[in-house]
């Protein structure tokens, strides 16, 4: 472990928090809950703060990124903050031309599809990550005993954006490359793994108490493709932070058939999306892995009694696992009423 002595995990601020206790398989003082995409689009204070600022600018202005990260903790009493950023920030900081187009998502100046394209990719330097470190330091100074979760995009999801040049529904380009040009694919995946790994390490060293790898698009893969062409790079990304000793979480959407392989890259906790009941996820993982999830985000807009029953079922299914952190089975939808999230947190804490 090489965390500095005044890191929140080392100086006593977060080590015994409900979140970290649950991530480590212990019995927390209250049932921990946080939400993916809790910082942002559903909050009026976020929209007000972001006026006149692009998405990528808001991620790279340390004071703004810190304030956005803190907003849902103040409003909802969630048991963790998730660092406000984007999985393409490491590309931007390395010098790859990319922007987040409203209503579309990440769009690259040009897709990365040839050996020359991959060879020309710039290296992400340590100094380029200074705005990230500054934002994390500002955030944890305000969080007190509430842990901050650092995050990064898993290499497949990052590489899928790079090959397609923009969001895609079927990810044909990256899937073609992994089979048609496996050596080129491996080279691209290693670049993405190192960029994401450095990004995650900067957050953890600066004060994040856990780290989550998001593989948003891995659900488009077969188990064989994931195991052969993707898992080694995800493991490589996490190799950048293993020595720091913080709990590591892995989450993907549509990845119920990949749970075991995603756990095997070397993580402590598995995030489960809304498609698979937590008791079944626990069975597939051998009953030994702390779980996170998996309220269906669609039910946040359903009548309260419907949502409440669903949350109680999720908590009951999660109780089969060694420990359980309540979350959504994907991110908070932009149109969610923030009052519902606050009420949901109160419900989880009351069970």
The total count of strands amounts to: 9
Across the major sheet, the strand order is 1-4-5-6-7-8-9
Structural class: alpha/beta
Biggest beta sheet attributes = 7 strands, parallel
Query: How many whole angstroms does the radius of gyration measure?
Result: 19 Å
Which range best describes the helical content: under 10%, 10-25%, 25-40%, 40-55%, 55-70% or over 70%?
40-55%
Q: Low-confidence runs (pLDDT<50, min 5 residues)? A: none
The count of helical stretches stands at 15
- Net shape: globular
What is the succession of H and E elements?
HHHHEHEEHHEHHHEHEHEHEHEH
Distance between the termini: 35 Å
What portion of residues belong to β-strands?
A: 5-15%
Question: What's the mean pLDDT score?
Answer: 97
Q: Could you please describe the fold and organization of this structure?
A:
- There is one protein chain.
- The protein is an alpha/beta fold.
- Helix content is 46%, strand content 11%.
- The chain is built from 15 helices and nine strands.
- Strands 1-4-5-6-7-8-9 form a seven-stranded parallel β-sheet. A two-stranded antiparallel ribbon has the order 2-3.
- Helix 13 (278-284) links the parallel strand 7 (269-271) and strand 8 (291-295).
- The longest helix is centred in the middle third of the chain and has 25 residues, at 182-206.
- The radius of gyration is 19 Å and the shape is globular.
- The two termini are 35 Å apart.
- The mean pLDDT is 97.
């Amino acid at each position: 472990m090489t965390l500095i002595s005044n890191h929140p995990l080392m100086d006593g601020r977060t080590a015994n928090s409900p979140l970290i206790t649950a991530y480590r398989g212990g019995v927390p003082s209250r049932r921990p809950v946080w939400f993916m995409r809790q910082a942002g689009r559903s909050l009026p204070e976020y929209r007000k703060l972001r006026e006149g600022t692009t998405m990528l600018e808001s991620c790279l202005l340390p004071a703004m990124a810190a304030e956005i990260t803190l907003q849902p903790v103040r409003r909802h009493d969630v048991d963790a903050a998730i660092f406000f950023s984007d999985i393409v920030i490491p590309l931007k900081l390395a010098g790859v031309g990319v922007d987040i187009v409203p209503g579309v998502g990440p769009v690259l100046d040009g897709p990365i599809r040839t050996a020359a394209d991959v060879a020309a990719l710039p290296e992400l330097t340590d100094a380029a990550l200074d705005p990230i470190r500054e934002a994390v330091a500002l955030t944890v100074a305000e969080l007190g005993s509430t842990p901050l979760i650092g995050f990064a995009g898993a290499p497949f999801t990052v590489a899928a954006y790079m090959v397609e040049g923009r969001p895609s529904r079927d990810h044909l380009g990256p899937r073609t490359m992994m089979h048609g040009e496996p050596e080129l694919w491996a080279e691209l995946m290693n670049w993405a793994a190192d960029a994401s790994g450095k990004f995650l390490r900067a957050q953890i060293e600066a004060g994040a108490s856990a780290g989550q790898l998001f593989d948003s698009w891995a659900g488009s893969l077969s188990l064989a493709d994931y195991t052969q062409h993707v898992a080694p790079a995800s493991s490589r990304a996490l190799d950048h932070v293993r020595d720091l000793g913080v709990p590591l979480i892995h989450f993907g959407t549509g990845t119920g058939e990949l749970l075991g392989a995603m756990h095997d890259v070397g993580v402590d906790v598995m995030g489960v999306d809304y498609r698979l009941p937590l008791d079944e996820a626990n069975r597939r993982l051998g009953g030994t892995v702390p779980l996170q999830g998996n309220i269906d985000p669609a039910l946040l807009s359903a009548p309260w009694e419907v949502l409440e029953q669903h949350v109680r079922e999720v908590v009951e299914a999660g109780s089969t696992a060694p420990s359980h952190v309540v979350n959504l089975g994907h991110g908070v939808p932009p149109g969610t009423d923030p009052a519902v999230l606050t009420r949901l947190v109160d419900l989880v804490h009351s069970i």
